[in-house]
Amino acid sequence: MDESERSPKVYYASNPGGSSPSSDSSTTSVHVTALDGLVNVNSLFTIAVFVGLSLTTPGQHSLENPSACDAGIDVVKKLLVFEVVSFSFFLFSSLVAQGLKLAINLLNSKDVDEVFRATINRKVLRLGMMGSAVGSVMGCIFLVLSMVYVIEIRLGMLSCGSKPAIHAVGALVLLVSSALVVYISTAFYAFMH
Questions:
Q1: Mind telling me which residue stretches traverse the membrane in this protein (predicted)?
Q2: Low-confidence residues of the chain, pLDDT below 50?
Q3: Starting from the edge strand earliest in sequence, which strands make up the sheet with 117-120, in order?
């Protein structure tokens, strides 16, 4: 059996007979691959969350000379809160994606004659994928906010005018916001088509 015959096919509920693919047919392997990618990216971001959590010890001195530029306990508290919220969004996104993958795989295994074909409600699939994408985007936003606090803890407060901190925060916000615009645009396109 070649690779094209083994790829799982999906027939949405709008084609209840499932006897032949309609214009709505697609492959579940595309959805599973997308969900796998989302879970993998969320896992990498979760590692970043735990790195940030390791910096939540009070009393750390920044690399700037004046001690007045050291972050106070309030910055450490905000860092901890944003890291936990970020972790919660990434966990939500990963669990939704894993649930969708499990549903697709279970539906694919129901029909003995057509092991690689599943009937899936398009609205539920879209809603689940969008929920997972929104969770990932929100996790990224809170992770960026927490990384700003990490930078302030290590390089000095932005309010002190620490140039390394300003440059680091500027690069972080510019690059991540650009990537999020691309990701959100792609997710919206996939949701609408």
A1: 84-107, 127-151, 171-191
A2: 1-26, 115
A3: 26-27, 9-12, 117-120
Residue 132: CA count within 13 A, CB half-sphere: 27
Q: Which tens digits make up the pLDDT trace of 75-121?
A: 888 888 998 999 999 999 989 888 888 887 777 766 555 545 556 77
Asked if 57 contacts 135 with a C-beta cutoff of 8 angstroms, the reply is no
Cβ-count burial 169-186 (b if 16+ within 10 Å, e if not)? beeeeeeeeeeeeeeeee
Q: How far is CA 69 from CA 33, 56, 154, in A?
A: 46, 17, 10
Q: In the structure encoding, which two tokens stand for residue 158, read together?
A: 């932005």
User: What pLDDT shows up at residue 181?
Assistant: 92
- Assess contact for 12 and 3: CB atoms under 8 A: no
Of 116, 137, 133, the C-alpha closest to 125 is 133
Cβ(14)–Cβ(48) below 8 Å: no
pLDDT value of residue 113: 54
| Domain boundary assignment for the chain | 3-192
CA nearest 151: which of 71, 86, 83? 71
CA atoms within 13 A on the CB side of 88: 7
